[in-house]
């Protein structure tokens, strides 16, 4: 029966995870919100499908956060940490400090005593690394300015957990409430404070030593066996071992995993570790989000509606306002500040660890702890919605808060204007200049402009989507406009302005993907060049030759493929609105391409046979 029950629970959780992903996709709000909704639906206040093991599953699913922090650590090589030092020490420390003080002040205003208020402020200053990074990644926002600032602050929060954990007992009265985690470090509960501190520091030092020396040698030995499952097992062993050690000394297992990841970031096995653990991270994080949704105590919310709703809103408003102000002081960009504040305004998963520690140290009462838990869980559930709301506002409100630097572009009478001088535009500009055709180059990335100017490349700063800038850059006398940008929205704005104010220009457009090519075609453009099409076809030609086809046959196949593919793209672009017609056109396009290639192969074979017969006849 025990096995049957275990299989039943596993079936429920995996089915819930799949439904959550599909729901998030259907409502277009992201998988994280889908997990939270389905978790609440199957939890004790919904269909009650989690059974008595729900809390155990939640603790098991927290391992997903541990794995995620380990993988984040693997990405943070010392050189990267050094580059992020200003964000980490500046923005990160200000966020934790000011948000802790702001929330503590709000708590004091509602009658909470000073020490418990400071503890609550530190707890609620934390944000959800799991939810924020997952949601930003889903929305393609992780590499934006706001996404990188959010990542840096979350990283600092993860590191700041160490001193906060050390500070919590100093804010308490020494009491020890009964809790699920209190037994983990009970073995050193009667030790003097200095001994406990040394033990904790020794545990961290042990992690560094084992990861740096022991595990690297183990990975080298395992790599020589060429058994991938052994490598996966060793990676899981490392993460679980670190988590156990951290739990034993009363620290966060996720923090220990993060430290181990940073130590191994410069290891030659970094990419192998990432690929082995990434599938575990995905499914375990899904279970973690389900657990957060199921853990929302709707009964407590019902009985203390004003306290919970007011607390969650107060947290988001106070913390969000501080975050918005910090971002504006740093960058002066309204859109970036809004997304940054929306991402980090809610509470985070580390709050649950700190609340447990606060209860065990007698910092505040069980009733207060329960209220803070519900406020954190409820605010975490709003994080995807806050990010979506910020996205919606940003898409409707133009960026106007930050005064843009004046463009230094001039009309040099060049026949070509190139917008965007990254890896794509740079190659075009060098080719044209090497043939004696001068270009006026515009780029909106100040760092890129400064770098290229230091290398002697003539380039001007400016946002080419502004109609007046194209005029200043000499669009009236130019013949050709090359748009080599990655961003589709900006490209479409430039196309629209160029067509309206400079209709004589011949416009050549870079399409980063096939989807963008459809958009540009529907906008009336025809000279569209897909980012990787040429390199893909060149590689395909070489593969065909390696497989035995003649140079002539491989070159002819590539030409036929390109010609038919261009026809396919234009045909499929007409049906982008109707998905049924689009897929019908796609199937027909693939069928016609295969038919064309089979016909070419047959023609080539027939020609080869005729040539052989003719040669034989001549010999006779």
What can you see in these coordinates?
There is one protein chain. With 620 residues, the chain is mainly alpha-helical. It folds into two domains: 2-181 and 191-396, Na+/H+ antiporter like fold (Up-down Bundle), CATH 1.20.1530.20; 416-604, NAD(P)-binding Rossmann-like Domain (Rossmann fold, 3-Layer(aba) Sandwich), CATH 3.40.50.720. The chain has 25 helices and six strands. It has helices at 2-26, 31-42, 54-75, 78-83, 85-109, 114-125, 129-138, 145-171, 193-223, 228-248, 253-263, 270-294, 298-303, 305-331, 334-344, 350-360, 366-396, 423-434, 446-454, 467-472, 488-501, 514-522, 533-546, 551-573, 579-619, and strands at 416-419, 439-443, 460-461, 480-483, 506-511, 528-530. The protein has a six-stranded parallel sheet with strand order 3-2-1-4-5-6, with helices on both faces. β4 (480-483), α21 and β5 form a beta-alpha-beta unit. α6 runs antiparallel to α16 (350-360) and α23 runs antiparallel to α24. It is globular, with a radius of gyration of 30 Å. It starts with a helix and ends with a helix. The relative contact order is 0.08.
């Amino acid at each position: 029966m025990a096995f049957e029950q275990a299989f039943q629970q596993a079936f429920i959780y995996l089915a819930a995870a799949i439904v959550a992903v599909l729901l998030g996709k259907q409502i277009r709000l992201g998988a994280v919100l889908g997990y939270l909704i389905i978790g609440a639906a199957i939890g004790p206040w919904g269909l009650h499908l989690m059974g008595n093991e729900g809390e155990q599953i939640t603790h098991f699913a927290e391992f997903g956060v541990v794995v995620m922090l380990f993988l984040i650590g693997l990405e943070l090589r010392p050189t990267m940490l050094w580059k992020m030092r200003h964000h980490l020490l500046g923005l990160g420390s200000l966020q934790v400090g000011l948000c802790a003080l702001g929330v503590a002040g709000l708590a004091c205003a509602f009658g909470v005593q000073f020490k418990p208020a400071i503890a609550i402020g530190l707890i609620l200053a934390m944000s959800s690394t799991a939810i924020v990074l997952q949601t930003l990644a889903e929305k393609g926002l992780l590499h934006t300015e706001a996404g990188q600032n959010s990542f840096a602050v979350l990283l600092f929060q993860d590191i700041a957990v160490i001193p906060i954990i050390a500070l919590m007992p100093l804010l308490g009265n020494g009491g020890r409430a009964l809790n699920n985690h209190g037994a983990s470090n009970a073995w050193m509960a009667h030790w003097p404070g200095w001994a406990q501190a040394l033990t904790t520091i020794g545990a961290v030092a042990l992690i560094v030593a084992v990861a740096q020396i022991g595990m690297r040698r183990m990975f080298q030995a395992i790599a020589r066996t060429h058994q991938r499952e052994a490598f996966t097992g060793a990676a899981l062993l490392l993460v679980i071992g670190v988590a156990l050690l951290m739990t034993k000394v009363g620290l966060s297992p996720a923090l220990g995993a993060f430290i181990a990841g940073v130590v191994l970031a410069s290891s030659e096995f970094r990419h192998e570790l990432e690929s082995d653990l990434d599938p575990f991270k995905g499914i375990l994080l899904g279970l973690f989000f389900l657990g957060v949704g199921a853990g929302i105590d709707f009964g407590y919310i019902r009985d203390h509606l004003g306290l919970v709703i007011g607390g969650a809103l107060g947290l988001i408003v106070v913390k969000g306002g501080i975050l918005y102000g910090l971002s504006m002081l740093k960058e002066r960009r309204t859109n970036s500040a809004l997304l940054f504040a929306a991402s980090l305004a809610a509470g985070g998963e580390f709050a649950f660890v700190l609340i447990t520690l606060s209860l065990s140290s007698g910092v505040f009462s069980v009733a207060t702890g329960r209220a803070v838990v519900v406020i954190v869980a409820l605010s975490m559930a709003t994080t995807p919605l806050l990010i979506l709301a910020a996205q919606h506002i940003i898409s409707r409100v133009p960026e106007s808060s930050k005064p843009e630097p004046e463009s230094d572009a001039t009309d040099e009478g060049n026949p070509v204007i190139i917008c965007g001088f990254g890896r794509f535009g740079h190659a075009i500009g060098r080719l044209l200049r090497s043939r004696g055709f001068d270009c006026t180059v515009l780029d909106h990335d100040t760092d890129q402009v400064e770098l290229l100017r230091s290398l002697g490349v003539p380039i001007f700063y400016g946002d080419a989507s502004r109609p007046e800038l194209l005029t200043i850059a000499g669009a009236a006398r130019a013949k050709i406009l090359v748009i080599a940008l990655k961003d589709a929205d900006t490209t479409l704005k430039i196309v629209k302005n160029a067509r309206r104010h400079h209709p004589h220009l011949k416009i050549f457009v870079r399409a980063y993907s096939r989807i963008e090519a459809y958009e540009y075609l529907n906008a009336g453009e025809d000279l569209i060049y897909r980012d990787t099409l040429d390199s893909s076809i060149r590689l395909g030609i070489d593969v065909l030759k390696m497989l035995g086809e003649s140079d002539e046959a491989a070159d002819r196949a590539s030409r036929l493929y390109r010609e038919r593919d261009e026809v396919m793209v234009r045909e499929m672009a007409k049906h982008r609105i109707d998905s049924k017609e689009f897929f019908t056109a796609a199937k027909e396009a693939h069928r016609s391409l295969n038919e064309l290639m089979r016909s070419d192969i047959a023609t080539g074979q027939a020609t080869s046979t005729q040539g052989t017969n003719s040669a034989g006849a001549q010999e006779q």
